[in-house]
Design brief:
Blueprint lengths: L6 H14 L2 H5 L2 E10 L7 E4 L1 H9 L11 E4 L3 E6 L2 E12 L5 E15 L2 E11 L7
Parallel strand pairs: 1-7
Antiparallel strand pairs: 1-2, 3-5, 4-5, 5-6, 6-7
Length: about 140
């Protein structure tokens, strides 16, 4: 029996990979045929990426070795709804925070994911991500 309680750890692994600039860990969180759709606060058209290679390429393309992100992701409570034995829908909110003497919360968003059991672990097959605010520095 698969443990649906492990799904929130998947999201923690993704956010840690982004924050720590770990491309290998980031890639391991997506199925090969994953789809990522991002709706930006200040753009009319969403961005849609297809396939693990395209998703990882866009996310990690400008990461430099030894660098960490200027922002951190704080994942809210994850709601998981099993579909069947090997797939589930999940939703969570995320706050983007700039660390410092006084932490600044420059952004927030919501994630709607389809996750599947794939090659020994939970991975994202589809993510719909909506930013509620403009992305700082972009």
């Amino acid at each position: 029996m698969l443990d649906f309680d492990e799904i929130p750890r998947l999201f923690a692994r993704i956010q840690e990979a982004v924050d720590d600039r770990n491309a290998v860990q980031f890639a391991d969180c997506w199925t090969e045929d994953a789809v990522l759709r991002i709706e930006f606060f200040d753009r009319d058209e969403p961005l849609e990426l297809r396939g693990q290679e395209q998703i990882v390429g866009l996310a990690t393309g400008n990461w430099k070795p030894g660098e960490t992100a200027f922002m951190r992701h704080l994942v809210g409570t994850v709601a998981v709804e099993p579909i069947d034995k090997t797939s589930a829908r999940a939703q969570f909110y995320c706050l983007y925070v700039v660390p410092g003497p006084v932490a600044i919360g420059p952004g927030a968003g919501v994630y709607h994911d389809l996750v599947v059991w794939d090659k020994d672990k939970w991975r994202v097959k589809r993510r719909d991500h909506t930013f509620f605010t403009p992305i700082p520095g972009h």
